[in-house]
Write a structure and sequence with these properties.
Residues 2-446 form the ABC transporter domain. The protein has helices spanning 40-48, 81-95, 111-122, 135-141, 160-205, 209-233, 298-309, 333-338, 345-354, 371-383, 401-413, 425-430, and strands at 2-11, 14-19, 21-24, 29-33, 55-60, 65-67, 99-103, 127-131, 144-149, 152-156, 257-267, 273-283, 287-291, 317-320, 389-393, 417-421, 434-439, 442-445. By secondary structure, it is of the alpha/beta class. Strand 9 and strand 10 form a beta hairpin. Helix 5 (160-205) runs antiparallel to helix 6 (209-233).
Length: 446
C-alpha cells in the first residue's frame, strides 16, 4: 500500500501542488496526467524518497522503484534513446518490484515496443504509477487517474477514457457558465444604469425630501446590482486550446527543390550500412513522416538529409535533434529561442507558453532547466528559426497533450516542407502526410 497525506510541495517560493489523502493499493494502475511543468516528475521523486522537501506525509509498504525519463542521448553512444529505454524497462519488469513508477516510458519507443510494454504491464500485479502524455498507453492500462491541475493533485477512480470524457464535459460546462456570467453581468450593469437614470429623473421632477429619498434608494439598489455585475465580470475565462502562428511564414515555392538525394547510403559511426542507397526529393511544401524500429537508423538518415539540404543555397534547414546540441547552455531561454529568428519576442513567448515554458523561466539560463524543459526550448527554437525545411527528430517526446495539439496544428499550417520522425501514434495518424518506413536497410514508401 502507498499513502499520501496532506502534501504541500513548494518550488521557487511558490506552491507547486497540494494533495488531500490519496491511497494506492495492489492492482491499481494510476495514470498521472497534467500539463508540462506542473510537478508530475517531482511527484515521482517524492514517492521514491529522493525529494523530501515538502510538508505532509508519504508512506509505502515497499520502496517504490522508478524508471526515469531518458534524456541526453549523445552521438557517442552506440544505442538509441529507445534502446536504452527498453533495456531499463526490461530490467525493472524482471525485478518485479511491489511499487513501480514509470516516467514517460513510451517517449522513445517505436510502435512495436510500445505494444510490448503494454502487454508486459498488463501482467504486472503490484502498484503501478505511470506519468505519461501517451493517450494510447493510458487508455490501455489505467484504472485510476491522478490529475495535476491548478496546483492540486486530484484522484479520479475511473479509466482514462471516462476521465477524458469527464474533463471535456467540465470544460464545456465552464465555458457555458462563463458566457452566462458575462451575459448576466451586462444585464445587471444595464439595469443599474437604468436605476440611476430613473433616480435622476425623480430628483429633477420632485426636488423635495421625498424625491431625495427615492433617488437615494434607487442609487443604493444600483450599487448592489453593480457590485454583483463586477463580481461576475471578474470571473476568469476558462483556458482554451492555443493556436501557434508565425508572423513570418516560410517563403518557398511549391516546386522549389529543397533537398534531392539520389542513391546515397546511410552509415553508422563505425561505417556500418544502415540504409542502402536513399533516393528522396523534397520540394517546397512536401510533408513526410518516416517510421522504423528503434536503432534502425532514422536519426542517422535525418543527419544525412540535413547535410545534403545545407548544400542547397535556397534551403534553410530547421533541424530538431534529440541531442539538443543547438542550445547554448549559458544563454537565457528567450535569447536561445530568438537567436536565429525574425519573430517578435511576443511570438516567442506564445510558443514557449504553449510548451509549458512560462514566466520567470524566460530569463533562466538553459543550463538550469530540466531535460524535458530543454527539449521543449530546443523545439521552439527550431520552429522559430525561419526555416523553409523543418527536419524534426522525435519532436513529440515529453510534450503534454495541449502542446501536442498546438504543434500538430502548426505543422499542418506550415507553408514550408517537413520531414518528421515520430513514434506517437495519434499524432502521426492525424497528419495526412506521405509516409516512409526503414525496413531491411531500405527506405520504402508505405
Amino acid at each position: 500500500m502507498l499513502k499520501i497525506n496532506q502534501i504541500t510541495k513548494n518550488m521557487r517560493g511558490q506552491v507547486l501542488f497540494t494533495t488531500d489523502k490519496l491511497t494506492a493499493n495492489k492492482g491499481d494502475v494510476i495514470g498521472v496526467v497534467g500539463d508540462n511543468g506542473v510537478g508530475k516528475s517531482t511527484l515521482l521523486s517524492m514517492l521514491t524518497g529522493d525529494d523530501t522537501d515538502y510538508t505532509g506525509q508519504i508512506t509505502a509498504s515497499s520502496q517504490p522503484f522508478l524508471v526515469p525519463q531518458i534524456f541526453d542521448v549523445t552521438t557517442a553512444q552506440r544505442q538509441s534513446g529507445g534502446e536504452i529505454e527498453i533495456q531499463a524497462l526490461r530490467q525493472a519488469l524482471d525485478r518485479n518490484p511491489p511499487v513501480l513508477l514509470l516516467d514517460e516510458p513510451t517517449a522513445n519507443l517505436d510502435v512495436a515496443h510500445q505494444d510490448w510494454l503494454i502487454n508486459r504491464l498488463k501482467r504486472y500485479r503490484g502498484i503501478l504509477i505511470i506519468v505519461s502524455h501517451d493517450e494510447y498507453l493510458l487508455e490501455a492500462l489505467v484504472n485510476w487517474v491522478w490529475a495535476l491541475k491548478d496546483n492540486k493533485l486530484q484522484a479520479y477512480h475511473m479509466d482514462y477514457v471516462r476521465y477524458r470524457a469527464t474533463v471535456e464535459q467540465i470544460e464545456v460546462t465552464e465555458q457555458q457558465q462563463y458566457r452566462a456570467a458575462r451575459q448576466q453581468a451586462k444585464k445587471l450593469h444595464d439595469e443599474a444604469q437604468k436605476l440611476v437614470q430613473r433616480g435622476n429623473r425623480v430628483k429633477r421632477q420632485n426636488n423635495t425630501l421625498k424625491g431625495d429619498t427615492v433617488q437615494a434608494q434607487l442609487t443604493s439598489n444600483a450599487k448592489i446590482l453593480n457590485k454583483e455585475s463586477n463580481r461576475l465580470a471578474e470571473i476568469e475565462k476558462p483556458q482554451q486550446k492555443q493556436t501557434l502562428k508565425l508572423q513570418h511564414q516560410a517563403n518557398v515555392r511549391s516546386t522549389q527543390v529543397l533537398v534531392n538525394v539520389v542513391g546515397i547510403p546511410v552509415k553508422s559511426a563505425d561505417d556500418k550500412i544502415l540504409v542502402d542507397e536513399v533516393t528522396l526529393k523534397v520540394q517546397g511544401r512536401d510533408k513526410y513522416i518516416i517510421h522504423g524500429e528503434n536503432g534502425i537508423g532514422k536519426s542517422t538518415l535525418l543527419q544525412m538529409l540535413v547535410k545534403q539540404a545545407n548544400q542547397h543555397v535556397m534551403t534553410k534547414v530547421g533541424y530538431f535533434s534529440q541531442q539538443l546540441d543547438q542550445l547554448e547552455n549559458q544563454a537565457t531561454v528567450i535569447d536561445n529561442v530568438l537567436q536565429d529568428s525574425n519573430e517578435s519576442e511576443q511570438i516567442a513567448r506564445d510558443f514557449l507558453g504553449a510548451m509549458g515554458i512560462r514566466g520567470e523561466m524566460y530569463h533562466q539560463n538553459v543550463a538550469s532547466l530540466s531535460g524535458g524543459e530543454r527539449v521543449r526550448v530546443s523545439l521552439v527554437r527550431t520552429l522559430l528559426s525561419g526555416a523553409n525545411l523543418l527536419i524534426l527528430d522525435e519532436p513529440t517526446n515529453y510534450l503534454d497533450i495541449s502542446a501536442l495539439q498546438a504543434l500538430q496544428v502548426f505543422l499542418q499550417q506550415f507553408t514550408g516542407a517537413v520531414i518528421l520522425v515520430s513514434h506517437h501514434r495519434q499524432f502521426t495518424q492525424a497528419l495526412a502526410w506521405r509516409k516512409y518506413v526503414i525496413d531491411n536497410q531500405a527506405l520504402k514508401p508505405i
